[in-house]
């Protein structure tokens, strides 16, 4: 194969290379934001005369959740865009095998920790919290959302599962009428956002509801629809790949600018309002990364998706679930030790801030790797075997 052929090797319409690196960067950015909330370590890189202050982007790492959900919409819809959709039942089973083993394990651990915590005296509230999580509606009430006794980062799974419930019915319609369906989803999401949510005096319980996320999923699905079509284009492939690289770079720049602008916002109400107002354009840039980065030249796609990136992408689900809890527990246990009676971040205690930050990332990575390969993957494999066995037995009878 010539150098030109390697450079212009066509992408696989059923696989988006940019999705791997985007997932890793989003989860890492969210993790850094949550760990920074505990350490207050100034994210400044200074080498000699070079100085790079990453504070604006670390402080707004929560915005990257929207990009994660856009990626989810992209990947969930991509088989439909390629005409390889599965029956709804099979779709739900596959999603359940992917999510539930790690999710249930997390809930069990969180339940044990909550019951054994000093001062625990409200089993009724904890049971309501648990039931809301089991039915993936824990984003609807304060006691199971921002005041949960379990794991507050799990709210994203409530939104995800609610979206998965409607996807088998929505996806065929989107494939037949992509422009119209995208406009309806976007219009519905923006209407809910600007007419219902933003005028509220307190948007805490509504900022991350599914109706406000419709714009995010719509952009992800549109990018998947276009990718499935454009990945098969043979004519002017070099020009298409160049356009993909440009679109990806422009989208990355757009996200950088929006996150920096959001960093100047202070006050919880204004931060949530800023997040809502930037959500559509931010997720559109995420869609641009997915579409452009997956269509670009083969060597660039290899940078976006290689063995190391795919490994980190594969453990990212468990990293996301556990990173915040791990960081809080390490701090409570005084690991690494600090001199202040409490709150060493307020005292600006160095080198504790640096050591703690690095340890949080390392501990979360180790935890994610162990749980992915000891629980998530074996449980999913066992589940598939049981389902295949039941299917065979039904056919035989």
What would you note in describing this structure?
It is built from 14 helices and two strands, in the order ααββαααααααααααα. With 397 residues, it is mainly α. The chain has one domain. It has a two-stranded antiparallel sheet. The termini are far apart.
Poorly predicted ranges (pLDDT <50, ≥5 residues)?
none
- Distance between the ends: 52 Å
The helix-strand sequence is: HHEEHHHHHHHHHHHH
Compute the gyration radius: what is it? Answer: 22 Å
Strand tally, please? 2
Would you tell me the structural class of the helices and strands?
mainly alpha
Helix content: over 70%
What is the tally of helical segments? 14
The neighbouring-strand order within the major sheet is 1-2
Tell me the strand percentage band: under 5%
Q: What about the largest sheet?
A: 2 strands, antiparallel
Compute the average pLDDT.
94
Domain module count: 1
Shape: globular
């Amino acid at each position: 194969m010539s150098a030109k052929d390697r450079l212009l090797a066509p992408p696989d319409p059923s696989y988006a290379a940019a999705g791997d690196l985007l997932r890793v960067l989003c989860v890492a950015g969210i993790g850094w934001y949550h760990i920074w909330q505990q350490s207050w370590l100034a994210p400044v890189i200074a080498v000699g005369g070079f100085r790079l202050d990453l504070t604006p982007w670390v402080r707004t790492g929560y915005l990257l959740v929207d990009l994660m959900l856009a990626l989810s919409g992209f990947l969930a819809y991509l088989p439909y865009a390629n005409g390889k959709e599965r029956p709804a039942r099979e779709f739900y089973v596959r999603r359940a095998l992917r999510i539930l083993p790690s999710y249930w394990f997390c809930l069990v651990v969180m339940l044990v920790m909550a019951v054994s915590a000093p001062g625990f005296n409200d089993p009724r509230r904890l049971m309501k919290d648990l039931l809301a999580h089991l039915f993936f509606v824990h984003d609807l009430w304060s006691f199971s959302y921002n005041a949960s006794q379990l794991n507050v980062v799990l709210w994203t799974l409530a939104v995800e599962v609610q979206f998965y419930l409607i996807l088998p019915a929505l996806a065929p319609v989107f494939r037949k009428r992509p422009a119209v369906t995208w406009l309806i989803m976007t219009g519905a999401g923006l209407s809910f956002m600007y007419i219902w949510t933003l005028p509220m005096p307190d948007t805490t319980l509504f900022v991350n509801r599914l109706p406000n996320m419709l714009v995010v999923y719509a952009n992800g699905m549109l990018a998947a629809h276009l990718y499935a079509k454009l990945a098969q284009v043979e004519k002017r492939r070099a020009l298409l790949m160049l356009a993909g690289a440009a679109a990806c770079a422009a989208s990355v720049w757009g996200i950088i600018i929006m996150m920096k602008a959001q960093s100047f916002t202070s006050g919880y109400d204004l931060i949530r309002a800023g997040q809502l107002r930037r959500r559509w354009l931010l997720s559109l840039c995420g869609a641009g990364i997915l579409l452009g980065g997956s269509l670009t030249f083969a060597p660039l796609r290899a940078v976006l998706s290689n063995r190391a990136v795919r490994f980190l992408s594969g453990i990212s689900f468990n990293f996301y679930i556990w990173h915040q809890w791990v960081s809080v527990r390490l701090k409570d246990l005084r690991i690494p030790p600090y001199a202040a009676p409490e709150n060493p971040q307020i005292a600006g205690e160095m080198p504790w801030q640096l050591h703690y930050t690095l340890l949080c990332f390392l501990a979360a990575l180790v935890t994610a790797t162990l749980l992915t390969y000891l629980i998530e993957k074996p449980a999913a494999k066992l589940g598939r075997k049981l389902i295949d066995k039941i299917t065979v037995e039904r056919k035989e009878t």
